[in-house]
């Protein structure tokens, strides 16, 4: 059996772009990251957020819960991002993609199982 391969996010947003899309202040975006409502990683020294995790003018509904479960299971930001973007034929797609559809609860269940 082959190991799942991480898929790159479709696009990236800088924190000011996230603030604009969510119509909040940049300090609110920083707070959302601190409070695990949103994930950001450094790329070339700039913190960025995967674009598909910010749907329209909101954060994906189940993302904060999934992030908290991953962090509670010992994942750091990079590991959580890698998990969110691992190709999974049973979803189909990636957990990040599934958060936008009817498989979001399954993603949350799988993240919860990582803690055991």
Give the SSE layout:
Elements: E1 12-14, H1 15-22, H2 26-34, E2 41-43, E3 46-50, E4 54-55, E5 58-59, H3 63-72, H4 77-84, H5 95-98, H6 104-113
Antiparallel strand pairs: 1-3, 2-3, 4-5
Helix pairs in contact: 1-2, 3-6
InterPro entries: Rv2175c_C, Rv2175c_wHTH
GO molecular function: DNA binding
Domain Rv2175c C-terminal: 61-115
Structural features, described:
With 116 residues, this protein is an alpha+beta fold. The chain has one domain. Helices cover 42% and strands 13% of the residues. The chain contains six helices and five strands. The strands form two sheets. A three-stranded antiparallel beta sheet has the order 1-3-2. Strands 4-5 form a two-stranded antiparallel sheet. Strand 2 and strand 3 form a beta hairpin. Helix 1 crosses helix 2 (26-34) and helix 3 (63-72) packs parallel to helix 6. The chain is globular and about 35 Å long. 28% of the residues are buried. The model has no long low-confidence stretch (mean pLDDT 89).
CA-based shape: globular
Biggest sheet overview: 3 strands, antiparallel
Number of distinct beta strands: 5
Encode the helix/strand succession as letters. Answer: EHHEEEEHHHH
Give the strand content: 5-15%
* Average of per-residue pLDDT values: 89
Q: Could you give the order of strands across the largest sheet?
A: 1-3-2
Radius of gyration: 14 Å
Q: Work out the count of structural domains.
A: 1
Q: What share of residues is helical? A: 40-55%
Kindly report how far apart the N and C termini lie. Answer: 23 Å
Poorly predicted runs are: none
Helix-and-strand structural type: alpha+beta
Put simply, the count of helices is: 6
């Amino acid at each position: 059996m082959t190991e799942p391969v991480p898929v790159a996010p479709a696009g990236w947003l800088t924190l000011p772009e996230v603030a604009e899309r969510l119509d909040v202040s940049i300090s609110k975006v920083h707070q959302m990251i601190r409070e695990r409502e949103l994930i950001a990683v450094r790329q070339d020294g700039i913190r960025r957020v995967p674009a598909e995790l910010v749907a329209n003018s909101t954060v994906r509904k189940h993302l904060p819960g999934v992030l908290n479960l991953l962090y509670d299971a010992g994942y750091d930001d990079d590991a959580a991002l890698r998990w969110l973007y691992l190709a999974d034929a049973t979803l189909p797609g990636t957990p990040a993609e599934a958060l936008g559809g009817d498989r979001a609860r399954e993603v949350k269940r799988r993240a919860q199982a990582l803690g055991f």
